[in-house]
Amino acid sequence: xxxxxxxxxxxxxxxxxxxxxxxxxxxxxxxxxxxxxxxxxxxxxxxxxxxxxxxxxxxxxxxxxxxxxxxxxxxxxxxxxxxxxxxxxxxxxxxxxxxxxxxxxxxxxxxxxxxxxxxxxxxxxxxxxxxxxxxxxxxxxxxxxxxxxxxxxxxxxxxxxxxxxxxxxxxxxxxxxxxxxxxxxxxxxxxxxxxxxxxxxxxxxxxxxxxxxxxxxxxxxxxxxxxxxxxxxxx
Length: 235
What we know:
Elements: H1 5-11, H2 14-20, H3 24-29, H4 33-39, H5 41-51, H6 55-64, E1 72-76, H7 82-90, E2 95-100, H8 102-105, H9 109-112, E3 120-124, E4 137-141, H10 149-162, E5 168-173, E6 175-176, H11 184-196, E7 202-203, H12 204-213, E8 216-222, E9 228-234
Helix pairs in contact: 4-5, 6-7
């Protein structure tokens, strides 16, 4: 993916992105990243395959967090279902829902067949409009960082309307450290967001404020060798 033109061309405009604060991607291609992917299946296939290739990330998440107390989990923007497959495989009593755009979940063969198929529902939809209701856990892996605060709040508020009152929301991604401390991974991804999208990586306090605005209370941040896990509950 990193060598594909739809990635490296915007990186070549990093200077303008820093000066203007606008994603270089939109200036070059005339649309945002996700609208572009919807209209260019070859690029979308590369992007989806890259998002599905994080097997090490999934094992890190499973080692860091106990999902056993949940009955039903919704993976919001879960792509082709690799993370949900990993969770359901590790917890045989857990039910799951994979939720993403219809064009994305059409490729979710890993959860449509095999040992978890009977425990996994695949639903196509738009998380800016709604998310499946009634689960006690909602997962957003590498989703919120792609959007500005206004759009991120729309996604989180839809999760708040759908989640059980005693449920848990889990955001998985980079949590930036204070700017005075070295943070090579988070800093690089923050620049990636600047170049490709209107989103950004956030500090713990920025996540706390975003979650509070959407009706959640941040309970803890679990740092791992991969993505951090930001746990919150309905306020």
